[in-house]
Structure formats: structure tokens, C-alpha cells
Design goal:
Structural class: mainly beta
Distance between the termini: 46 Å
Shape: globular
Oligomer: single chain
Number of helices: 1
Strand content: 35-45%
Largest sheet: 7 strands, antiparallel
């Protein structure tokens, strides 16, 4: 019983710290903040301004799980109409417009490649 509780707490802790994570269904993107609407936009959808709508769960966290091709993917959230990079993801790069794009890299196995906490410019 104690072991299950520790594993559950660890999983909750990891999901709070990391806004992008591997799951058995794909890559989970999450945004934990007060909003009326949250969309995911990025290289995975051609930066379509309509974005990919994220779903708000009972815990107040917005989530979407996607299966992504291997390679580098850059993205942002559109939160109530405002474009924001993912402040919880330590990998980002200049977006060319005075802001930042969040970045992830997917390996050949479909898993996200973990990066160190460094700025990618």
C-alpha cells in the first residue's frame, strides 16, 4: 500500500513539473492555468492559427495527447487568444519575432528525447 502511494505521488509530481511527457498513447501536452480556451499550435500542424483544441479536465489542467513523427517539433499555446511559449519546458528557441518557441525532439521510437535544461538558440 505504501509503495503504491509513493508511486502515485511521484507520478503526480512529474506531471506537475513537466508540461510535455511520453505516454503509452503518444506525447502529452498540458497547460495548468486559468483559461477559457487553450489551443496547441506548432510545426506539427503547420502553425495553423486555429490550433489543436486542448481539453480541460476536472483538475483544471488542459491536456492533449498527440502521436508525432520523429524529429524536432516547435510549439506554443494559444491561451484565450494570446500566443505563449511553454514556460514549463526548458527547451526553447528564438521564434524570429522577439519571442520564444518551445521545442521537443521525438526519436525514431516515437518517444520524446529528454534534453537538459539549456536554452537552444
Amino acid at each position: 500500500m505504501k509503495r503504491i502511494t509513493l508511486i502515485t505521488l511521484f507520478s503526480l509530481f512529474v506531471s506537475i513539473i513537466f508540461s510535455v511527457e511520453n505516454t503509452n498513447k503518444g506525447i502529452l501536452f498540458s497547460y495548468d492555468g486559468n483559461a477559457k480556451s487553450v489551443f496547441l499550435v506548432g510545426s506539427m500542424n503547420g502553425w495553423n492559427e486555429n490550433g489543436i483544441p486542448m481539453e480541460k479536465y476536472e483538475d483544471g489542467v488542459w491536456r492533449i495527447t498527440l502521436q508525432l513523427s520523429s524529429g524536432k517539433h516547435t510549439y506554443k499555446f494559444i491561451i484565450d487568444g494570446d500566443w505563449k511559449y511553454d514556460e514549463e519546458n526548458p527547451s526553447f528557441e528564438d521564434d524570429g519575432y522577439g519571442g520564444m518557441n518551445s521545442m521537443i525532439e521525438i526519436g525514431q521510437d516515437g518517444e520524446m528525447i529528454q534534453k537538459s535544461n539549456t536554452k537552444n538558440t
